Amino acid sequence: MSEEKREYSLETKVVNGSHKDQFRASVAPAYLSATFKPNSLSDMGDYDYTRSGNPSRTNVQDHVAKIIKCDYVFATNSGMSALDVIVRTVKPGDAVIAGDDLYGGTHRLLTYLKEKDGVDVQHHDTTDLKIMKEKITKDTKMVFLESPTNPLIKVIDLKSICDHAHSVNPDCVVVFDNTMMSPILMSPLELGADIQYESATKYMNGHHDIMAGIVATNNKVLADKIFYVINATGAGLAPFDSWLLMRGLKTLALRIERQQESAMKIATWLESKGLKVRYPGLKSHPQYELHKSQCKGPGGVLSFETGDVKISETIIEKCELYSITVSFGCVNSLISLPCKMSHASIDEEVRKERDFPEDLIRLCIGIEGVDDLIYDLEQALKFAGVL
Ligand code: PLP
User: Fold this and answer.
1) Residues 239-270: pLDDT tens digits?
2) What is the per-residue pLDDT for 319?
3) What's this model's pTM, rounded to 2 decimal places?
4) Nearest residue CA, atom 12 of ligand 1?
5) Residue closest to 51 by CA, chosen among 35, 40, 65, 37
6) How far apart are CA 42 and CA 262, in angstroms?
7) DSSP string covering 70-124, please?
8) Which pLDDT does position 353 carry in this prediction?
9) What integer is the mean pLDDT of 174-184?
10) Please, which residues have CB within 8 angstroms of residue 279's CB and are 6 or more apart in sequence?
11) Angle (deg, nearest 10), helices 370-383 and 309-318
């Protein structure tokens, strides 16, 4: 056997957390304490106040750092607060480029930044590399990207955008929202992003019982700024939520494996019925090859069109196994009409400009039996007259 220490797979890493506990508990305890006593007045110890740090938060941050293989990880109290602490590092007048198909809440926060703080935020089609190369210049301070977007499932060429941004401005900070793929399927920092963030409310926790966010970077200067804001604003993840996130993470790889296997079967089935399906695992997806080149799998979210909003509404209401909720990445399957739910905060006119089909149905596949999920969709499609 080789002497070299084996690099364990992600499937192994997510299960094996390491922590120091005085009683050698196999599961790290939740430190439900807002304050910590100093060892003495000349030795304050590692923790004093949970807003600044808590052992349960440190535990999950260290675990995620091992999974992502990066130097600095911060756990925040939602995906949006993860984004908020990142955007607070830009200044009024700074030029910022963002995708035109980002998550609705991201769009809302960037609009706030533009209107209230005078940050020059411009939205562009980030799937078009030519446009990106034109728009990202030496003056661009930050770029916000997401791939695949949801529910339009548009894919961007992350490495090429990062290479270009850093060649025109080595200090340009490329920020990537990795919520859709999770650290199991995509490694944005390895592709050149400076900051990766996740809504850990989704796949990383996986059970829709907490809100959480993750910010990861290898850049110490950025890490220091981000920690400063987290401490200043109190955006850090609470101890019990840190503990729950740690528990959820242990099944992350297993859940994703099952979710994407089922998503692939469902996408193929829907396409075989003649419906227009958006899923990066289908060869019909225009960026199938690009997605495959930068991710380890297509994930568990897909969308399809029915041709009529009323028909879409009927299908959604007729499904029994898919719960009608926003969000994704949960163990149970979800169905939604994005134009009336997750993307309702985007103006109808803007949705039109961005070719956002109002009849688009989004499916987020869970870990149920896939034949049951197909059966449920089939009865709903038949009821709505689509089949
Ligand atoms: N990023 C994406 C892609 C999302 O879908 C969401 C929420 O739906 C967020 C960020 C925001 O995360 P949170 O809801 O945890 O604040």
Assistant:
1) 999 999 999 999 999 999 999 999 999 999 99
2) 98
3) 0.97
4) 79
5) 35
6) 57
7) -SEEEEESSHHHHHHHHHTTS-TT-EEEEESS--HHHHHHHHHHHHHH--EEEEE
8) 82
9) 98
10) 153, 263, 264, 267, 285, 298, 302, 303
11) 130
Give yes or no for residue 79 CB within 6 A of ligand 1: yes
The Cα–Cα gap between 198 and 214 comes to 5
Test site for ligand 1: of 85, 144, 150, 199, most ligand atoms within 8 A of the Cβ: 199
Tokens of 319: 């499904």
CATH architecture, domain 10-249: 3-Layer(aba) Sandwich (3.40)
Read off the tokens for 106. 């991201």
Please report, as a single letter, which amino acid is at residue 371. D
Separation of 235 CA from ligand 1 center, angstroms? 15
Q: What is the CATH architecture assignment of 252-383?
A: Alpha-Beta Complex (3.90)
pLDDT confidence bin for 35, thresholds 50/70/90? very high
Atom 4 in ligand 1: residue holding the nearest Cα: 103
**Helix (H/G/I), strand (E/B), else coil: 6:** coil
Residue 105, ligand 1, Cβ within 6 A = yes
Residue 57: active-site member? no
Q: What local confidence, expressed as pLDDT, does residue 19 receive?
A: 82
Ligand 1 lined by 10 (C-beta under 6 Å): no
Could you tell me the distance, in angstroms and rounded to a whole number, from the CA of residue 68 to the centre of ligand 1? 19
**Do 10-249 and 252-383 show the same overall fold?**
no
Q: How far is the CA of 256 from the centre of ligand 1 (A)?
A: 18
Tell me the three state secondary structure of residue 349: helix
Mean pLDDT over each residue of the chain, to the nearest integer: 96
Task: Report the C-alpha gap between 145 and 138 in whole angstroms.
Answer: 18
Encode pLDDT of 281-292 as tens digits.
999 999 999 999
Known active-site residue 103: yes
Q: Where are the domains of the chain?
A: 10-249, 252-383
How far is the centre of ligand 1, averaged over its atoms, from the C-alpha of 103 (Å)? 7
